[in-house]
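Hello,

Our lab assistant flagged a job as stuck in the queue for most of the afternoon. It eventually completed. Since we weren't sure the result was trustworthy after the delay, we are filing this so someone can double-check. Below is the sequence as submitted and the structure that was eventually returned. Let us know if re-running is recommended.
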Amino acid sequence: MKVKSNTKLAIFDTFKTKGDDLTGEANRQRAIIVILGSNANPAERTRTGISQRIAKKADIAWKNIYSGIFRDLDEILLPIGIAEEDGRLPLKRGPKALQEKGIPYYHLTKKGILVALSITEVKNKENLMKEFFLLANSDEKEFKEILSSLMESSPIFTHSIFQKYVKAFCENKIEKLLPFNLAKLSQIPDESAIIQKEILDAFLKFSKSEKDEALNFLNKIIPDGQ
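-- returned structure --
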């Protein structure tokens, strides 16, 4: 099922000839969202600050990626409501008009926080999810309790749920990210989700000895850390 969408969000885009390798645009957008979703100070959330942080991690000159960061923010993330201006920093040098206006810095919107929850590189997902549900309306809080519990007990599984939801939006399989409603995923075929549900249904019916045997089996076939 596909729906019409004007999204330009490229965080899951891959090269057609390189398997699962993310494109440069995908990596830039993900890096921007990671920074805006962290506890970065305002100076690190300006276009220049974002460019410098990304460049430092990649060991490249920040001026070489500034134009790409500028474009991703001004032509994609800001227009589609993933990020928005959070304030302005005073400028001591340069044109007077620019000094008076200051340099804008950004933060994630409610929609942006939802997107951040789908990105593997984001580390503070538990705090971001709490922030998201503080901003959510009453209808969007239907899954709050179970997701909060799963985030503590099964963070990788919980991340995969948000990843599927946002990826479905990026692939035009759902029209809008908001209002947040995971029931939208029920219309999208997903073999991994079917497998997860099947094994959970089976596990709940097992006796204690069968559960222990199943866990022992899974521990033997799934590498540590996965």
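-- support follow-up --
The delay was a queue issue, not a problem with the job. The result is valid. The beta strands are 83-89, 103-108. The CA atoms of residues 169 and 176 lie 7 Å apart.
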